[in-house]
Amino acid sequence: MHVACVLVDHFPFRLEAARNPKLVKSRVIIYQHVGSRREVVDTSPSLTGVLPGTPLHEAQANCKDAILVEADSVRYKRVHEHILSRLGEWSPVVEPAQLGCAYVGLDGLETTYGTEERLIDALLRSIPRVLEPRLGISNGKFPAYAAALKATPGRAFKPPVPVKEFLSTFSVDYLPVPREIPIRLHSFGLHTIGDLAALPLGPLQAQFGPVGAKMWRLAQGIDDTPLAPLKPREEVTESLQFAIPTPVQGQILIAVESLLKRLLGRPDMRGRYARVCTLAGNIQDKPTWTRRIHFRPPLGDPRRGYFVIRSVLEGVTLPGPLEDISLTLGELTGESGKQGSLLADVRQRELIREAVAQLKVAQGHNPIYQVREVEPWSRIPERRAVLMPYEP
Q1: How does DSSP classify residue 128?
Q2: What are phi and psi of 338, to 5 degrees?
Q3: Half-sphere exposure (CA, 13 Å, Cβ side) for 58?
């Protein structure tokens, strides 16, 4: 199995540096909030010894001069998915890995593109040059990943020696196994993949079980793990750029209504319904603002969709002025709609029932109440009537 590994190391840092060139030569720590804690997501290449997942206060204690940048996870994921889409234009088999890494099946493509060099060049051009992508080629995913680690930024690398010999000098830290296993291997004096290759299968399998057998096979240069191609998600997106960054909710709602009409008016959306809507907007010097909204039942009418979105956004405080906004409809269905009643009063009740159901989804509870008489004869006003949740 001929495989290419496309790798962008320090993917979050390179995206932040592309947005703010002042960070290129700085010591940077990118962090995210995990509950009440803050932990490291990535660092600049010049910062060594700080691993992802490290509590931020520990990282700061070791690197007091580092610049702190809050992670823009939405943007990282969006760029990663765009890269996967571009790679999919050249190969039908693309498997996503961690952010900034993907495996591409090359079997049979050399004849399509003439030479392997032309195919490699096309894959590298699928990724912005500023991200400094690397490409490794070998027989199997792990050897290809190791080859990508050896590649020069912007270039490809293909091991000139047998895979087992090539992998022998790599640290066991690079093995695709849980983090605690390399720690145990180091404690046993097994520091390189070559050290593992020198052992018989039995002791490794006895100590680590199926993972031990997997490590032994990888150390022998054998990786026949099949690629798991990315399943394309059917979704449609429209975006709009504000002339001036705006924090005004009224202007944002007008933009949302326009985007929704534009999306649902497209020819390919005729007879289609959406279950999910995702709003996203860029804010200067802040992570991307997003809001995910579920439609129950699926919606294909822009008026009803706008009503739900407006209900969700009411009372929402934006972290800053939006520079742009995008609206994505996902989990599309092929439903043709529902049979409505011929009676006007029945149709009205159905519309009210659907509106209340949407409000329940948007607010998390039923915000509509009705007044019900309990003791209208009572002298105490509070006992004459009660508020009850309205259920049409």
Answers
A1: -
A2: -120, 150
A3: 11
Burial grade of 337 (CB within 10 A; 0-12, 13-18, 19 or more): exposed
Contacts of 241 (CB under 8 A, 6+ apart): 323, 324
Domains along the sequence of the chain with CATH: 2-157 (3.30.70.270), 163-219 (1.10.150.20), 236-338 (3.30.1490.100)
- The Cα 69–Cα 74 span in angstroms is 14
The 10 Å CB-count burial string (b at 16+, else e) for 318-333 is beebbeebbbbbeebe
Strands 94-96 vs 369-373: parallel, antiparallel or unpaired: unpaired
What would the two tokens of residue 187 be?
A: 């404690």
Give the pLDDT band (50/70/90) at residue 336.
Answer: very low
Structure tokens at 374: 């309990």
Q: In angstroms, rounded to a whole number, what is the distance separating the alpha carbons of residues 134 and 152? A: 6
pLDDT digits (tens, 9 = 90+) for 253-300: 888 888 998 888 888 888 888 989 999 999 887 888 998 988 878 888
Nearest partner of 273 among 253, 309, 297, 308, judged by Cα:
297
Local structure of residue 342 (DSSP, 8 states): S
pTM above 0.85, yes or no: no
Rounded to whole angstroms, the Cα distance separating 284 from 241 reads 13
